[in-house]
Specification:
The chain has two domains: 77 residues; 278 residues, Major capsid protein gp5 (Major capsid protein gp5 fold, 2-Layer Sandwich). The strands form five sheets. Strands 9-10-20-17-13-16-15-14 form an eight-stranded mixed sheet. Helices cover 37% and strands 23% of the residues. It has 13 helices and 20 strands.
């Protein structure tokens, strides 16, 4: 079974992967075999344990992970539309002028056109030491690609700003209210108390390198090349920061906030539910903590909830059954869908910790309301032909911040007895 999964290649047409329907069918077949093997494993554990069955389950589990990864890669390829917007007639004169000037700068280092454009627009800080703004369509394409491959950005709220800090006010205490009769006295209400959350945008950079022959090749789409080179670097750094970032020259990740037991939750902290055992689930009723985690979230948030965990944690949870013997984890119902757990989508984020003593390996919440990603408008590129001769470096920067904006919208599972 495992060899079949790895041997089948996706159908290709003009360099673009077809809709991964076959891969989706293979995933379902692999999951059915996994369930059968895992059932045998559970039966053997009740009696004496069988190393062969245990190894078989592990192999099929690994094959399921590979199949899920293959589907993710196919979906990612399809999320990469071509950047050749200018040829389709959508670009106006100023956009075409910016695009032409930017290409001259990237290919040959000619910056006069970009300097003239940014002088016209009164752009501050756009000198050769700070780099030049990429064309608008390239910036938008980088944003779309990051959304497609950065797991937290894909489910979080995103705000674009033109300043270095985004400040969001919230009400810590509202005006006093009450019921009154038709002719009853209406005393003056108290003044609401307002506080604010600040989300500074930190600088994120990538430095792709190009050869002279690539830059001289007129057939190479420079816009496409820039976006493709920086997307993975940006996405990896963002993904790690949105989860574990300490807020020091990077966003503050949601696992870096103070975490308290759900019974002691208060604003400014994230509540957690214990798994019931150090470094794992309890041997009896292992499903109950997951159900408790779901219902620790209020109904208004729960309807848009998602589980966030890494692939190893998902492999462990995939073995769990409910009281009726049904598996909690289910493969995606359609080719471009997500796996589900207790009917809620599962988001794979490899920067989440593994299951271990005291780790917060599973998060659940409405991340669109709970976590805010702040993007400062503008992506800049500085051409450096000197530092790594004979290669030309392109120092590419964008500013991004992030943090929890609603502490009631995200809950964690702590793998501990209490």
């Amino acid at each position: 079974m495992e060899s079949d999964i790895h041997s089948r290649a996706p159908e290709q047409k003009a360099g673009i992967a077809s809709v991964p329907g076959g891969a989706h069918d293979e995933l379902f077949r692999a999951f059915e075999e996994f369930k059968s093997a895992n059932d045998d494993r559970l039966v053997s554990l009740e009696h004496r344990g069988d190393v062969i069955i245990e190894e078989k389950v592990s192999r099929i589990n690994a094959a399921l992970d590979q199949q899920m990864k293959r589907i993710d890669e196919l979906a990612l390829r399809q999320a990469r539309p071509p950047l050749d917007i200018q040829r389709k007639g959508y670009a106006d004169a100023s956009t075409r002028e910016h695009k032409a000037a930017f290409e001259s700068y990237i290919r040959g280092g000619e910056s006069a056109g970009l300097r003239q454009l940014e002088t016209k627009s009164l752009s501050a800080g756009s000198n050769p030491d700070g780099g030049y703004l990429v064309p608008a369509e390239v910036e938008q394409e980088i944003g779309r690609r990051l959304t497609a491959i950065s797991p937290i950005r894909a489910i979080a709220g995103v705000r674009e700003v033109s300043t270095s800090v985004y400040k969001k006010p919230f009400m810590t205490g509202g005006p006093s209210v009450g019921w009154v009769g038709e002719t009853g006295a209406r005393p003056q209400t108290g003044t609401p108390a307002i506080a604010e959350l600040a989300f500074p945008a930190m600088e994120l950079y990538a430095m792709p390198a190009a050869t002279a022959s690539l830059l001289e090749d007129a057939a190479v789409n420079i816009d496409q090349w820039i976006a493709g080179e920086v997307e993975l670097s940006f996405a990896e750094q963002e993904g790690a920061a949105f989860i574990n970032g300490d807020g020091n020259n990077k966003p503050l990740g949601f696992l870096s906030y103070t975490n308290v037991a759900e019974s002691a939750w208060e604003w400014g902290k994230l509540g957690y539910v214990a798994s019931g055992a150090d470094g794992g689930f309890t041997s009896s009723d292992p499903v109950d903590p997951l159900i408790d985690l779901v219902y620790a979230l209020k109904a208004g948030y729960r309807q848009n909830g998602s589980f966030v965990m890494n692939r190893k944690t998902q492999a462990e949870i995939r073995k769990l059954k409910d009281a009726d013997g049904q598996y909690l984890w289910q493969p995606p119902a359609q080719a471009d869908g997500r796996a589900s757990l207790l009917s809620f989508p599962v988001i794979e984020a490899e920067d989440m910790p593994d299951i271990g003593a005291g780790t917060y390996a599973v998060a659940f919440g409405d991340f669109r309301r709970g976590y805010l990603v702040v993007d400062r408008l503008g992506v800049r590129v500085l051409r450096d032909p000197y530092s790594a001769k004979p290669y030309v470096l392109f120092y590419t920067t964008k500013r991004v911040g992030g943090g929890v904006q609603d502490f009631d919208a995200i809950k964690l599972m702590k793998f501990a007895a209490a």
